[in-house]
Amino acid sequence: MHKVSVIIPVYNVEKYICECLESVMAQTLSTGIECILVDDRGNDASMEAARKCIAGYSGPIKFQLVVRAENGGLSAARNTGINNAKGEYVYFLDSDDIITPDCLNLLVERASEYPDAEIVCGDFQTFPQKDVHKLISLQGKNFPESSFDKSWIRSVFLSSFPVIAWNKLIRTDFIRRNNLYFREGILHEDDHWHAQAYRHVSGLAFVNKVTYLYRMRPGSITMSDGVEERRLENMTLIFSEMFAKEVEWDKPWSDWILKSVGSLRYIGNKANIKEKAEHCVSQLLPTVYKNQSAPFILRLLFKYYFHNGVIFSSRLFYKLYAIYWKYKG
Q1: How many alpha carbons lie under 13 Å from residue 217 in its C-beta half-sphere?
Q2: What is the DSSP letter of 183?
Q3: Are 200 and 174 in contact (CB under 8 A)?
Q4: Could you tell me the sign of the dihedral formed by the alpha carbons of 169, 212, 267, 307, in that order?
Q5: What distance in Å separates the CA atoms of residue 311 and residue 324, rounded to the nearest whole number?
Q6: Could you tell me if 212 and 122 are in contact, meaning their C-beta atoms sit under 8 angstroms apart?
Q7: The overall pTM is greater than 0.90
Q8: In this structure, what are the phi and psi dihedrals at residue 44, rounded to the nearest 5 degrees?
Q9: Are 186 and 230 in contact (CB under 8 A)?
Q10: Which distant-in-sequence residues (6+ apart) come within 8 Å of 305 by Cβ?
């Protein structure tokens, strides 16, 4: 059995795929690695470039090419990789990014020290320009080397723990046992996966070193023009599914709800689609009202109506308040 299955979804990255694969081939961890490339049916020569790159490799890493029947997006490609993985852990690597030579060695060493941790997380750096993304970086967070304290894990998992799927060793049986596959057909699949995992994770470990280099490029999904409206729609879908779950609404979960509604407001304001954001929020909150107490709901309403100036309209505020009385009055 392999120790790590590196899963690389491949879609229209002809220019970058060889650099990505070469970073895998350069790993100092010399045994126990398989690398699964999932062809998501792009329209360039990415897979031809990948095959040429692999053909010149004679090292110990086993490369496997899996061809999907049709394009399904990042989530579908990752799920295909999970279904084909034979490793104890999976490691997601985007095909336009690269990993440091000691990446897998550092993460596997930490996993060996804490075998009950379901997720082992390293740090990352953007390139070619260096930038710090505090929300998804380990920098300045002073996380312990590991934790199995349920209260601590829940206090950070939805707030300051990196939400991205890449640059983490994740136990394969943890994914399969809890059906933690990626929701297909949406943007922000990592947010959806992360919220699902919240109820199941019981152990985390950290490597406070840069092990992953994230490429900043204009053509990527997250940096494409006109993506904000679709982002708003997808986040609304994710939140509606998560809000409707019949789970314990503990403080971290409730705080995440507040943060989530606020993120819709932020996206709407940033992209000048305020009315659409208002509509999304009015769709979401009835689900919140059914699950939460009046003090929490009023806190939510006033927090996001008055916070940093009036973003939503007075019309929306009274509409939401009327819905509140429908469910709580």
Answers
A1: 13
A2: P
A3: yes
A4: positive
A5: 19
A6: yes
A7: no
A8: -120, -165
A9: no
A10: 311, 312, 317
Say if strands 204-215 and 87-92 run parallel, antiparallel, or are unpaired: unpaired
Q: Which of 130, 125, 109 is nearest to 29 (CA)?
A: 109
Q: Are 202 and 150 in contact (CB under 8 A)?
A: yes
Strands (E), 129-288: 146-147, 168-171, 204-215
Beta strands, E only, the chain: 2-10, 33-39, 62-67, 87-92, 98-99, 119-127, 146-147, 168-171, 204-215
Q: Residue 165 and residue 91: Cα distance in Å, rounded?
A: 8
The angle subtended at Cα 185 by Cα 179 and Cα 189, nearest 5°, is 55
Measured from the Cβ of residue 4, the count of other Cβ atoms closer than 10 Å reads 24
- Widest pairwise Cα distance in the chain: 70
How distant, in Å, are the alpha carbons of 88, 229, 317 from that of 272? 46, 10, 19
Per-residue pLDDT of the chain (329 residues; tens, 9 = 90+): 689 999 999 999 999 999 999 999 999 998 999 999 999 999 999 999 999 999 999 999 999 999 999 999 999 999 999 999 999 999 999 999 999 999 999 999 999 999 999 999 999 999 988 876 777 899 889 999 999 999 999 999 999 999 999 999 999 999 999 999 999 988 889 989 999 999 999 999 999 999 999 998 765 555 444 577 777 888 788 877 777 776 677 888 877 877 777 777 777 777 677 777 777 777 776 666 665 555 565 556 555 554 444 445 555 555 555 655 554 44
Type of residue at 70: E
Instruction: State the pairing for strand pair 62-67/204-215.
Output: unpaired
Strand partners, 66: 38
Closest C-alpha to 182, from 201, 157, 165 = 165
Task: Please give the Cα distance from 207 to 106 (Å, whole number).
Answer: 7
Rounded to the nearest angstrom, the gap between the alpha carbon of residue 182 and the centroid of all alpha carbons in its chain is: 9
